[in-house]
Amino acid sequence: MKIEVRKAAKEDMPAVLELINELAEFEKEPDAVEVSVADLERDGFGERPLFECFVAETDGKIEGMALFYYRYSTWKGKTIHLEDLVVREEFRGKGLGGALYNQVIEYSRAQGCKRTEWVVLDWNTKAVEFYKKTGATVFDEWRTVQMDEAAMQSFCNKRS
């Protein structure tokens, strides 16, 4: 099986959204995806793109993607945050995920980034072990913190 990894184009966003939905199913959050193809097209390909994306193809069909964006570390400087890397279930274990991962890390290094970072669920042991084998550090002591739209609204209302 020949794998081709390339930068995503605007017309790839329907396939990217399919993969995002598949990831949500895998992560046991099937109803959590709110983003649309139009959102991805606008936010990834507008005047000031908010993200970049690589896609992995076999036989001309997109079977995996890695979506990432720049961040800035006050300690390190320019970094890349890998938001999601997903491969269709039937293509897992066939090298697509590794090819996407390699591409993101190589791209980050070529862009002069000081760090590439991402979040992994603790129960996704296959991914955790893969990352560790590649030399990545998986921190136990750091916690992801988020404030969703409703919480932000409540917070702002209390401050008014």
UniProtKB/TrEMBL annotation:
Gene Ontology molecular function terms on file: acyltransferase activity
Lineage top rank: taxon: Bacteria
Keywords, comma-separated and alphabetical: Acyltransferase, Transferase
Top EC class of this enzyme: transferase
CDD domains from the UniProt entry: NAT_SF
Coiled coil: none
The keyword Acyltransferase appears for this protein: yes
SUPFAM superfamilies referenced in this protein's UniProt entry, alphabetically: Acyl-CoA N-acyltransferases (Nat)
Domain N-acetyltransferase: 3-157
EC nos: 2.3.-.-
Name under which the protein is recorded: GNAT family N-acetyltransferase
Organism: Zunongwangia endophytica
